[in-house]
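Hi support team,

I'm filing this because I wasn't sure whether my run with dinuclear copper ion finished correctly. The job status page said complete, but I'd like someone to confirm that the output block is well-formed before I use it downstream. Pasting the exact inputs I used:
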Amino acid sequence: MRWSRAFASIFAATALAGCQGWQSALDPRGPKAGAIADLFWIFVGVCAVVWALVVIFLSVAVWRRRGERPDPLVTNAAQERRITIVVGTFVGLTAITLVALTAFSYAGQKRLFDTHEGRITLKITGHQFWWEVNYEDPDPQRSFTTANEIHIPAGEPVRIKLESTDVIHSFWVPSLMGKQDLIPGRQNLIQIQADREGVYRGQCAEFCGWQHAHMGILVIAHSKDEFEAWRNQQISARQPPEDEERNEGERIFLSKPCVMCHTVRGTSAGGTVGPDLTHVGSRQYIAAGTLPMSRGNLAAWIIDPQRIKPGVNMPLIKLDPEEVQPLARYLEGLK
Ligand code: CUA
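And here is everything the job wrote out:
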């Protein structure tokens, strides 16, 4: 008895553990994810009731089984009529259930894709294997680009335009919104909203190549003031290096092929093939959620990106051993 109870609680704990956390469609933290979760529970509830009814009727039929009829050709008209009524009723109920589920699904879809003009519009572009994020503003001076981490104000709808430059990716932050594809040559529009401050994890949900699994994205929801502070800091160009070693790091960065792919605003580096690194040090992760941000991880990544993300488009750059430390310190300091 004690064993079965222990087993039941362990089973429940492990089964439900997947339903919570920063990346779960069953732990909705915004109206769009709420629409999907509502739909999910309605379907689960209706299907559970139907399943239970089928099992009950089947069990009763088996339980009350009668012997074989002596002559199968002899029929009882009253009994036949009763059977017809019962079967007809259940066919009708099935049809009503299907129509009701379709209606719920339609209403859920409407809630999901209902977008309206908001204060904040982002454009997210999928790349193999990272996310480019443009904060659009009517004033071009206040538009800026970042990567792999989206910051939004909590309690406010944010419009997101989804595009891709290479193959099809899929934007999926389960706690906030359902999946939506990023398709080359086309723009899809969604809206997300986080009801409360917090960090929500998302993931590319369409197989896009070798490192599809390492294409994570973070959505960080702030209070309004915090968000404005973050935005103003991201709009600014990089802070000039404050000491000799970081100065050396910037010199190395600008003399290497890094500048062909990466931008650091405030320097001559203006490549747009890879992520904008102007404030890379302010991000929580590097390589699209693959490694936590730290000087050591930056160094490991620069020395051999193919070892950490085989198949990634970042090439191997020839560096002298003594160049690694200043370069990693320079990048880490780009807050
Ligand atoms: Cu991008 Cu999978």
